[in-house]
Here is the input.
Amino acid sequence: MRVAILILFLALGLMLAPAYADEPFTKITVNGHVGYILREKLAAKLDVDFFHERAIGYWTPSLKDLTAAEKAANQKIKQTTIAPEKAFPEIASHPGGFAIPTLDKLKSQAIGIDKNYDSYIRQFVGLVLYNGKKQIYCNYFLNPRIGYRW
Here is the structure.
């Protein structure tokens, strides 16, 4: 349910984003891939805990920050295709019976993403977590129709 709400919220936000006069998204290219930064001002305006339940604030990441985040995300995806239990030790060590099916699902999804990695458009949101650390939330979308305006 929470995932469905998140997807609906993000889809609605992406459709409504062009209505903001100050262009809330900044189009960038990170390692040859098109991406969009959700600026701090709009992220704060949409302040709901869909991005991350521990976020207490937002920031606008730099290209250097995004390059590092893109590299880390790509490594996590590749690691998940090979050894999901190492990519997600918190799931693998869970005492409940959901760990194996969840890891299998994550591996399957990661294989599909890795295979089509260059076809994805990125969306980045800078989060400030409750402990003061900064984190970049990365959304990956299959390339939308040509002419789509973020």
Remarks:
- The two ends are 25 Å apart (CA to CA).
- The CA atoms of residues 54 and 129 lie 5 Å apart.
- The beta strands are 25-30, 33-38, 55-59, 120-129, 134-142.
- The longest strand covers residues 120-129.
